[in-house]
Amino acid sequence: MLALTRRQLARRTRPLLLRQYATPVNNEPNPQYNGYPELPDVNHQYRTPLGWQDNLLRRNFGDTVHHHEEVNSVWGPDIPVVPPNQALRQFLIATGCFVAAGLFMRTFLVPERPAIKREYPFNGLETELGGHRANPEAESSDE
């Protein structure tokens, strides 16, 4: 696992702390918690893996459980290592490389046909096979 410095950890957690869309601006306690402590929204994956009474969940016994424990626990969704805009850019670059490689192979690496393409007389056997010009009654009945 990669060891994160405090600066990298602060850089990663800062956008999560700034995105407070539905939270009130004032520091009054939320009445829906009914006195339950409001803990910071920090994922347990940022915690060091050693030094806990329960190393698997990275917490001590008797600690207060966060109200979003299922999301912030080690078993919750993984924290993306790459920011979403950079991941999208990398995906588009990789997709563009595959498309460019395919077009290059189709244009320059596909050999020519070993035989001449078939050509039929009388405008591609239109009269023999009953095309539109060979059967004018069918065109007038369609209208």
TrEMBL record:
One of its GO terms (cellular component) is mitochondrion. InterPro entries: NDUFB8. Pfam families: NDUF_B8. It comes from the Eukaryota. This is Uncharacterized protein. It comes from Favolaschia claudopus.
